[in-house]
User: What shape does this take?
Amino acid sequence: MSDVDTGSNPFLRRSYDLDGPADAASLYDEWAESYDQDTADTMGYVGHTLAAERLAEIVPTDAVILDAGCGTGLVGAALAERGSFTIDGMDISPGMLAKAEATGVYRRAQVADLTGSLPADDDAYDAVICAGTLTEGHVGPEAIAELVRVTAPGGVVVATVLDAIWEPNGYRAAVDALAEAGKAALREAEERPYRTHQDVMCRLVVVDVR
Assistant: This one.
């Protein structure tokens, strides 16, 4: 695991040492009830707000958006405050999805493993947002190509990636490979606060889909 402050939260510590999708689903099912308070309140997690604000600045307010790794629906709720978006959610954890559905902001929420093929057609969405999921022990850089696949040309993928792993773990290289293949282009990857109470930074990544 990278040298990232996880504080004293046992769920967060476990999250960086997951052993595959089944382990991830189990952990987040356990964490679903206290996740929002543990992250947004206790840790000062702001990744969902950063990503939602940036996406809302880019796409029309009636865009159809996939929230990939939607968790409890923090991103969807943040988007709903910023436009009349149509939002679908996907997550590995049924427990987290139940929380997301309860927000009432999702058109559809379904179980999906972001480490494999997504249950969506090519070019299905105007945009994809993925906050807090492209990180060590969770979903690796190979998933970026799948997020691009389900985004229509002219659309965008907005994601957060921990700053400590953006280049060392191959996320930047994965975007560069998509650019070389003519499928996408990196618009920006700005360093931003991620968990403000732990001084953890992220890259707020915007990828234009070709």
Notes: Strands lie at 64-68, 86-91, 106-111, 125-134, 151-162, 184-195, 200-209. The mean pLDDT is 94.
